[in-house]
Design goal:
It contains 15 helices and 7 strands. It is α/β, with parallel strands linked by helices and about 325 residues long. It folds into 3 domains: about 140 residues, P-loop containing nucleotide triphosphate hydrolases (Rossmann fold), CATH 3.40.50.300; about 60 residues, Helicase, Ruva Protein, domain 3, CATH 1.10.8; about 90 residues, Zinc Finger, Delta Prime, domain 3. The strands form 2 sheets. Strands 2-3-4-1-5 form a 5-stranded parallel β-sheet, sandwiched between helices. Helix 8 crosses helix 9. It is elongated and about 75 Å long. The two termini are about 40 Å apart.
């Protein structure tokens, strides 16, 4: 969407500034205070603070000398075994500068490493544990081989809650002299889905248009379906007016240029607000998942969404 200038500019520099990961931060901080950390494995969704926490650890350990003692590699770009044999080994075998008796290597997106590279990394972690500590970051810890997982202390990161995103956005708005409304924060949070980096980028994009962050601007920048529009579609369908529901859905998809998968996500959220029995809501959620799978596999999105609307019409008439 935009460059990540703000993401870097407002990156937390202290443990106390990290939001939404209190349990993880407390455990990490106690390890850092002892000037001795094990190999670490950070697992969790994007934009939840894994890379940020790795930087804070290094800065707390080494102070002004942190750049000389820190190597960051993105494993999704450099996935092969040669990266482990050359870059990682050559950095790991040299002595650190400063109080801590080891250097730190941060491997971002480590779950993108090939199996061969992971096995080479396992040996490197074992051979150079006296002079180097590894911090591995991944979205899915199950994609990291067991020998590496057993050598690391595992920390799981969770998606940020609304109060955490709100805290970050208000802090940035205050420093950038922006006026942000509560409704706008709600929309940004829903669009970010707990990803703080995405929320900051959305705010940055809107601020380039106006210093007043209104819900209308958020909707325009995010280019997503408005919940109230999706609710109108579902209300038509539940009342049995399939034709109006179909026309409104087509209008939303064409006017807002929204993909079928995005519409499915919005429908899934609105199902729980419908005035129907809970058991029927569960069945519609199941049908939503089936339609989403068909769209991902290559079926025509609008045909599949019409099929889903037909299910809502039947549900409104009390037919399973």
């Amino acid at each position: 969407m935009v460059s990540e200038i703000w993401t870097e500019k407002y990156r937390p520099s202290k443990f106390s500034e990290v939001v939404g990961q209190d349990d993880v931060v407390k455990r990490i901080e106690s390890l850092v205070n002892s000037l001795n950390i094990p190999h670490l494995l950070f697992a969790g969704p994007a934009g939840t603070g894994k890379s940020t926490l790795a930087l804070i650890i290094v800065k707390e350990l080494f102070g002004q000398n942190w750049k000389e003692n820190y190597l960051e590699l993105n494993a999704s770009d450099e996935r092969g075994i040669n990266v482990i044999r050359e870059k990682v080994k050559s950095f790991a075998r040299t002595k650190s500068i400063g109080n801590a008796p080891f250097k730190v290597i941060f491997l971002d997106e480590a779950d993108a490493l090939t199996p061969e590279a992971q096995h080479a990394l396992r040996r490197t972690m074992e051979n150079f544990s006296g002079t180097c500590r590894f911090i591995l970051s991944c979205n899915y810890s199950t994609k990291i081989i067991d020998p590496i997982q057993s050598r690391c202390a595992l920390f799981r990161f969770k998606l940020l809650e609304k109060k955490d995103i709100e805290k970050v956005l208000k802090r940035i708005a205050e420093k950038e002299k922006l006026e942000i409304k509560e409704e706008s924060i709600e929309l940004i949070y829903e669009s970010s889905e707990g990803d703080c980096r995405r929320a900051i980028n959305i705010l940055q994009a809107i601020s380039s248009i106006s210093p007043v962050i209104t819900p209308e601007l958020v909707s325009a920048v995010v280019s997503g379906a408005k919940p109230k529009d999706i609710r109108v579609v579902l209300d038509y369908a539940i009342s049995g007016d399939f034709q109006s529901a179909r026309e409104k859905l087509l209008d939303i998809m064409l006017r807002e240029s929204i993909s079928g998968q995005d519409v499915i996500k919005h429908i899934q959220k609105e199902i729980w607000n419908l005035p129907i029995e809970p058991t029927l809501k569960v069945k519609l959620i199941e049908k939503t998942g089936e339609i989403e799978f068909r769209i991902v596999e290559g079926s025509d999105p609008f045909v599949q969404l019409q099929s889903l609307l037909a299910s809502f019409v039947l549900a409104g008439r009390g037919l399973d």
